[in-house]
Amino acid sequence: MSFSGKYQLESQENFEPFMKAIGLPDELIQKGKDIKSISEIEENGDNFKVTVTTGSKVLVNTFTLGKEAELETLTGEKVKGVVQRDGNKLKVSLKGIESVTELVDGNTIVNTMTLGGIVYKRTSKRM
């Protein structure tokens, strides 16, 4: 199954505690909590481009599976990481955050980010 497509955020769990834990200011947390972000994934072999648009903020990451890439985090910081594919899951560890993006079926993506004991879960549907 290909990850390629556009997905809109449908639901999320633990947004506020997770964003506080990674150091996002309260003002940005309040602004962002109700925005239905749109994720666009382009998959070409082992090469990926992921664009996440949340209101006026656009986050773009490009990477090749299994190779080190510079990735922008939710706080805007750029860190190096290696994205691995495990079946229908993309996994990466950035600054203590374990991120797993799973293609649950042809139309649903679930992204889970774990930091310490906080699990932030986002479910998005294909548009």
How does this model look, in words?
There is one protein chain. By secondary structure, the protein is mainly beta. It has a single domain, classed as Lipocalin (Beta Barrel), CATH 2.40.128. Helix content is 11%, strand content 61%. The protein has a 9-stranded antiparallel β-sheet. A hairpin with a 2-residue loop joins strand 2 and strand 3. The longest helix has 7 residues. It is globular and about 40 Å long.
Kindly list the characteristics that best describe this protein:
mainly beta, 2 helices, nine-stranded antiparallel sheet, two-stranded antiparallel sheet, 127 residues, Lipocalin
Quick structural summary:
This protein is mostly beta strands. Helices cover 11% and strands 61% of the residues.
For the record, what CATH class applies?
A: Mainly Beta
Total count of helical runs of at least 4 residues: 2
Q: From the alpha-carbon coordinates, what is the Rg to the nearest angstrom?
A: 14 Å
**Could you give the count of β-strands?**
11
Protein name: Fatty acid-binding protein, liver
Subcellular location: Cytoplasm
Family: Belongs to the calycin superfamily. Fatty-acid binding protein (FABP) family.
GO cellular component, one term: cytoplasm
